[in-house]
Specification:
The protein has 2 helices and no strands. The chain has about 55 residues and is mostly helical. It has one domain. The longest helix has 26 residues. The relative contact order is 0.13.
Length: about 55
């Protein structure tokens, strides 16, 4: 059986990088919480936009 775990690692690295970025730029605790949720969904939004541009 073939194991395709590479995409999960890429998503995780993207999420971790976005989390660090959004938390560093948060001035208050609510902004930090919003930044956490942005970091979770950010890689998915980027993938959606890329596929939209490619018309897939």
């Amino acid at each position: 059986m073939k194991n395709n775990a590479g995409s999960g690692a890429i998503y995780g690295l993207g999420m971790l990088g976005a989390l660090v970025y959004f938390i560093q730029h948060a001035a208050t605790v609510p902004e930090g919480i919003i930044g956490f949720f942005k970091a979770v969904f950010w890689p998915g939004v980027i993938l959606y936009k890329v596929l939209e541009v490619l018309n897939m």
